Amino acid sequence: MTSQVSSPAEQADGALVGEQRTSGGGDGGKEVRRLDRVIIRFAGDSGDGMQLTGDRFTSETASFGNDLSTLPNFPAEIRAPAGTLPGVSSFQLHFADHDILTPGDAPNVLVAMNPAALKANLADVPRGAEIIVNTDEFTKRPMAKVGYATSPLEDGSLEAYNVHPVPLTTLTIEALKEFGLSRKEAERSKNMFALGLLSWMYHRPTEGTEKFLRSKFAKKPDIAEANVTAFRAGWNFGETTEDFAVSYEVAPATKAFPTGTYRNISGNLALSYGLVAAGRQADLPLYLGSYPITPASDILHELSKHKNFGVRTFQAEDEIAGIGAALGAAFGGALAVTTTSGPGVALKSETIGLAVSLELPLLIVDIQRGGPSTGLPTKTEQADLLQAMYGRNGEAPVPIVAPQTPADCFDAAVEAARIALQYRTPVFLLSDGYLANGSEPWRIPDVDELPDLRVQFASGPNHELADGTEVFWPYKRDEQTLARPWAVPGTPGLEHRIGGIEKQDGTGNISYDPANHDFMVRTRQAKVDGIDVPDIEVDDPADEKGLSANTLVLGWGSTYGPITAAVRRVRGAGERIAQAHLRHLNPFPRNLGDVLKRYDKVIVPEMNLGQLATLLRAKYLVDARSHTQVSGMPFKAEQLAEVFKEAIND
Description:
Elements: E1 2-5, E2 21-23, E3 31-35, E4 37-45, H1 50-64, E5 67-73, E6 88-96, E7 109-112, H2 115-121, E8 130-134, H3 140-145, E9 162-166, H4 168-175, H5 183-187, H6 190-201, H7 207-216, H8 221-240, E10 246-250, E11 260-266, H9 267-282, E12 286-290, H10 297-303, E13 311-315, H11 319-331, E14 335-340, H12 342-358, E15 362-368, H13 385-390, E16 400-401, H14 408-423, E17 426-432, H15 433-437, E18 439-443, E19 463-464, E20 470-471, H16 514-529, E21 538-539, E22 551-556, H17 560-572, E23 578-582, E24 584-586, H18 592-597, E25 601-606, H19 611-620, E26 624-628, H20 637-649
Parallel strand pairs: 3-10, 4-7, 7-8, 8-9, 12-13, 12-14, 14-15, 15-17, 16-17, 22-23, 22-25, 25-26
Antiparallel strand pairs: 1-11, 2-3, 4-6, 5-6, 11-18, 16-24, 19-20, 21-23
């Protein structure tokens, strides 16, 4: 869904839900309270449809015009045992009437579909928050599965919360009696009942969800109408029950964004659109050679839908075949891409080195996840930076670009394509599971805002021998970029040898000459070092005396949202702190060293054990302080704010 937004403005990503302004006289005479932001978490068994429920609530929230940020969280197993803690799936949504940056630290509302969902998420719920529980699931056996000896709904353990016991299953089955469904079939719609209830509670639009359900189940109209009926029943339950005496309004974020047309978008979808746009701007066919792997598979799924834009997708038999096909497509004149996660990068490493040697444009999209080995497939991490930087045999430098938000994945993909095409090199694009699955509003760009990525293929001889003969040298370089010519196979006279053995400078012939090898290694490194990337910008508001901060927080990738939210909180408490964020990790921006030297303290938060900090210490000899987390979850802004305050006052 898209929405129109106008009037730019900037507000802080506050630490608490906004002040409640109460007004009476809502529908049915119920009280309506106005909030500036809310954090909701839907949680249940992996078969309860929590991701779909959260996605639908998010879509309606986007169409309403709120700013939003989401955090889907699901089990690594395809179907974990029902009712167990490992099988809990959740979806958190933070939406507001102002600019926000994260899915929120803690939910104000938890919807728990069973005992496992309650137990797995209760530690994150602050005192006084709302908890909506499906009482039908709180029977002896489901509670025993997760270690409840007595019902938490009856033993007083939830007294600190505002608990709403709702028999979701029973109410759903009763609402669907007319459809003649079995109990099991009717139960499947309880997530739609919950969605209807929350839609009433927060005044969300309903038309889009009803249209979606009828489209999704178009071949099963009875099932479609059953889901619509359950959705409406949930809405009506909120309207009529005495347990929900208050509903809430969160106004559209009309002042949060520049003027434009917006839509909700996930990181993987934005990245896919960025690749398609790059192919069109380069006037080249886009070729994806890929092997399915969590959390990158959605890019393959999405790109396979866009043959009309000159996109070709190949689902290979393994990771090595996927990148081999992509590299072949690059040799053939396509904008070539391979998508994977950390384990797949390990398998692709030799072919990435071959791409370095062949000096062909190739995008390696790494959607990072928890490791090592197969690790935590559905959890997020930033631990592939050193692998992207050094994870190949020999000296094989590769540029690295990292997006900072889900929507920014579009621009990062276009930028990675620019570098690959202009400098004839493979490029790493480092996203992660948090960005890939999370979503936020994205302003749809005008085509004329996108860069011109067109390239000139070699068309004839480019070198004159001593005897005056004109020949084609495949490794004769552009003086500015050091890129070699890109010759499409089949062009008369441009035949040349390719392969992994070292090339002779200029001619491209096989060479074992030590001096030539030294020259080629240093030239490939110089090409990457010379890539034109923008200077890093520092957000360092001076105080009333014109003094800058003495502490800098430097991040990369998906830590942008939590870091920025934390910095806002620290500044709101009266402290001075500067912030900068890296998009280009190889090469670093040329002014980065000077920026780091301006500050007494440099803090580097990362979802790894300090990989960027290690690179900064080695290159710039600065005492970069690591703050790390490898829990499989993104940072919380409140925790980072405390870390920053301690560093400032240290």
